[in-house]
Design a protein that fits this description.
about 80 residues; 3 helices; GMP Synthetase, Chain A, domain 3; 3 strands
């Protein structure tokens, strides 16, 4: 089981100038959603952005983290989004 704060800390340490917002959607410590904002995503296709997040989480995905609904943003896209 993982805590949303642990996932946030891992991502914010691994990705430059990252801000990660993590929710434990089912309250079970295994099913999460995440919005991750980082300048590291600039110029990268969405698939590569997601790959950076999954690489940062490493083997936790599929073991401690059963499911992760992921949305990634560059800082400019985050600022321009419609909530």
């Amino acid at each position: 089981m993982m805590d949303p704060d642990d996932i946030r800390a891992i991502l914010e340490e691994a990705l430059p100038d990252c801000t990660a917002m993590i929710n434990d959607d089912a309250g079970d410590g295994e099913h999460f959603s995440a919005e991750v904002v980082s300048p590291a995503f600039e110029g990268l296709p969405l698939v590569r952005q997601h790959k950076l997040v999954y690489e940062a989480l490493g083997p936790r995905v599929g073991t401690d983290i059963h499911a992760l609904a992921l949305r990634t943003f560059t800082p400019a896209r985050w600022k321009a989004r419609t909530p």
